[in-house]
Write a structure and sequence with these properties.
single chain; 508 residues; alpha+beta; four-stranded mixed sheet; three-stranded antiparallel sheet; binds protoporphyrin IX containing FE; monooxygenase
């Protein structure tokens, strides 16, 4: 088996070599930003060898500067590591860099990049964005999902309560909470294909976060064809597509019945189907387009929120002072009712600071989603060719000692009286990106984070197992679609006396 892999790899290498010996690149005529010297064929790929790419890129940028050039395979790539330059790419020249590279996995899983995150910058993407902002993810829509959130959060805390005093793997629970919540928001009532769909999408998400050789040799057509036909990818795509059809089938049947009973409520599938029916969308919206958008909602929405929750709780456990302050705030606000209500969440000012500070230290998508230039331009005196891939290292920027004091320390108070928000206007803090491609799911993401967090802090005190000291909590990261904890967050919940869970003695 190993011998076959070596023969195949050598064959691929040889074919790429032949191709590159035939086709010289034009980089030498341009004044590109500085960067490490590339090797033939692989370029700078060897420079990225290691588990945490955002750390490696930060370290390289310390040597080559905040605008660094790398050649990854055949792709000219720029890495941006300062707020000033991030502003150049995401504000001053935003139109030129509003494109996305057409990567292998979104081509296969997101119906040829017809989702929002990977659709090329143009009319189709503009229409999708509009649907997102006005219909799918508007504040009114986010508000309309409140009963679903409350139900799912209640299920979560009830599950924790039954495990009081024993070790719970919060990482695992948080993941199923966010995926489950997204499924309810997208499909409405639980359907019989939901579990299957969630496990498929989690598997596809894992594949998406991996490295694809096709993405660094886009002009080598046979690599594209072979990669797209990879049996693993094809099989997964077919399964996902079939499950989508099953879900839509069941959804249609249910909506028909519910309309008769006058009970229908709008979930995201309803909204997308009604946009499709209305014909308001510029080009007709196909069923595959709807599936592509739903792929985004799941992969961009679930993984990020559970990662954020995991890091927020980790930072609080590691800083008992901040934990005490946050819990006192939540308990003072909700002691009278014994339970947290979403309508009062906005009063929790310190909790908001805790979330903000955690997203600075641990932006779930640390290098945002790559962009691609649609034409040649010049930035800071350097030439940027058309189709240059741009990586913005938001993680490194939000820990830059030139812009943040004690950058690696968890200090929620630093955001007290600060005008910095999530809207990407101040480029030293961009956990949701910025410019035209900024995340459209900020409100939905925050709503699912805030309610669960407040509930977990209200109803329980949290202890580390095995007599571990709080300050020693392991915070090692692992790279994937989002940067999560390497080791699951295992904690022991101890119910709070004034919690309605304790008062009722059981969970309804
Ligand atoms: C804590 C939660 C979340 C974080 C940290 C986050 C972060 C991000 C980031 C960094 C980007 C790339 C922005 C850029 O390239 O400038 C992005 C894009 C996107 N996010 Fe989020 N996100 C979150 C939640 C959500 C949710 C809940 C949804 C939807 C349900 C969502 C949907 C999207 C979509 C569709 C895009 C692509 C936008 C485009 O290319 O036009 N995100 N997100």
């Amino acid at each position: 088996m190993e011998l076959i892999s070596i023969i195949c790899a050598s064959f691929v290498f040889l074919l790429v070599l032949i191709k590159f010996l035939k086709k010289p690149t034009n980089d030498s005529t341009l004044k590109l930003p500085p960067g490490p010297k590339p090797l033939p064929i692989i370029g700078n790929m060897h420079n990225l060898f290691g588990p945490l790419t955002h750390h490696i890129l930060r370290d390289l940028a310390q040597k080559y500067g905040p605008l660094m050039h790398l050649r990854l395979g055949e792709v000219t790539t720029l890495v941006v590591t300062s707020p000033e330059l991030a502003e150049e790419f995401m504000k001053t020249h935003d139109v030129i860099f509003a494109n996305r590279p057409q990567l292998l996995c979104p081509r296969v899983f997101n119906y040829n990049c017809t989702d929002i995150a990977f659709a090329p910058f143009g009319e189709y993407w503009r229409q999708l964005r509009k649907i997102c902002v006005v219909e799918l993810l508007s504040s009114k829509r986010v508000q309309s999902f409140r009963p679903i959130r409350e139900e799912e959060v209640h299920k979560f805390v009830a599950g924790v309560y039954t495990n009081q005093g024993s070790v719970v793997n919060l990482s695992k629970m948080l993941c199923s909470y966010t995926y489950g919540l997204t499924a309810r928001v997208a499909f409405g009532k639980k359907n019989k294909y939901q579990e299957e769909f969630i496990s498929l999408i989690m598997e596809a998400t894992k594949m998406t976060s991996g490295f694809a050789i096709a993405d660094v040799y886009p002009s080598v057509k046979w690599i594209q064809v072979i990669s797209e036909m990879s049996p693993k990818i094809k099989r997964m795509q077919k399964l996902l597509d079939k499950t989508f059809d099953n879900i839509f089938g069941e959804h249609k049947e249910r909506s028909r019945q519910e309309t008769v009973e006058g009970e229908a409520k709008e979930d995201l599938v309803d909204v997308l189907l009604s946009v499709q029916k209305s014909g308001d969308f510029g080009t007709p919206l196909s069923l595959d387009n709807i599936k592509a958008v739903l792929m985004d909602i799941f992969s961009a929405g679930s993984e990020t929120s559970s990662t954020a929750l995991e890091w927020i709780l980790s930072e609080l456990v590691k800083s008992p002072e901040a934990m005490k302050k946050t819990q006192e705030e939540v308990r003072t606000a909700f002691d009278a009712s014994g339970n947290v209500h979403e309508s009062g969440i906005h009063e929790l000012k310190y909790l908001q600071l805790v979330i903000r500070e955690t997203l600075r230290l641990h932006p779930p998508v640390p290098m945002l989603i790559p962009r691609e230039s649609s034409e040649q331009c010049s930035i800071n005196g350097f030439d940027i060719p058309e189709k240059t891939r741009v990586i913005i290292n938001a993680w490194a920027i939000s820990r830059d000692p030139e812009h943040w004091t004690y950058p690696d320390k968890f200090i929620p108070e630093r955001f007290l009286d600060s005008a910095i928000d999530y809207q990407g206007k101040d480029f030293k803090y961009i956990p949701f990106g910025g410019g035209r491609r900024i995340c459209p799911g900020i409100s939905l993401g925050l709503a699912s984070i805030e309610l669960l967090l407040a509930q977990l802090l209200f109803h329980f005190d949290w202890k580390l197992p095995g007599g571990q000291k709080n300050e020693e909590l392991d915070m090692t990261e692992v790279f994937g679609l989002s940067v999560r904890r390497k080791n699951g967050l295992n904690l022991i919940p101890v119910p709070y006396d004034n919690s309605s869970l304790v008062k009722q003695g059981q969970v309804s």
